[in-house]
Design goal:
Largest sheet: 4 strands, mixed
Mean pLDDT: 96
Number of strands: 4
Distance between the termini: 17 Å
Low-confidence stretches: none
Structural class: alpha+beta
Radius of gyration: 11 Å
Number of helices: 2
CATH superfamily: TusA-like domain
Strand order of the largest sheet: 1-2-4-3
Helix content: 25-40%
């Protein structure tokens, strides 16, 4: 999946992946996609809920070698 920006949140504990995601999303235009890499296991539930509550779309997510990867489209 192609993304417009990449956020490396590996090694950050809750709530920092959400805080950094929110800041990065403010730099994107509607319809652009942010790719997030995180290692905090709580990030899956947190980012899913945050995207929904903020009117964004969690396009897809996967786990690869212990790294959680998310693609969120700005709403």
């Amino acid at each position: 999946m192609n993304a417009d920006k990449l956020l490396d949140a590996k090694g950050l504990a809750c709530p920092m992946p959400i805080v950094r995601t929110k800041k990065m999303m403010e730099q994107l235009d509607t319809g652009q996609v942010l790719e997030i890499h995180a290692t905090d296991k709580g990030a899956k539930n947190d980012l899913t809920a945050w995207a929904k509550s903020g009117g964004h779309e969690l396009v897809t997510d996967l786990e690869e070698d212990g790294i959680l990867k998310f693609w969120i489209k700005k709403g």
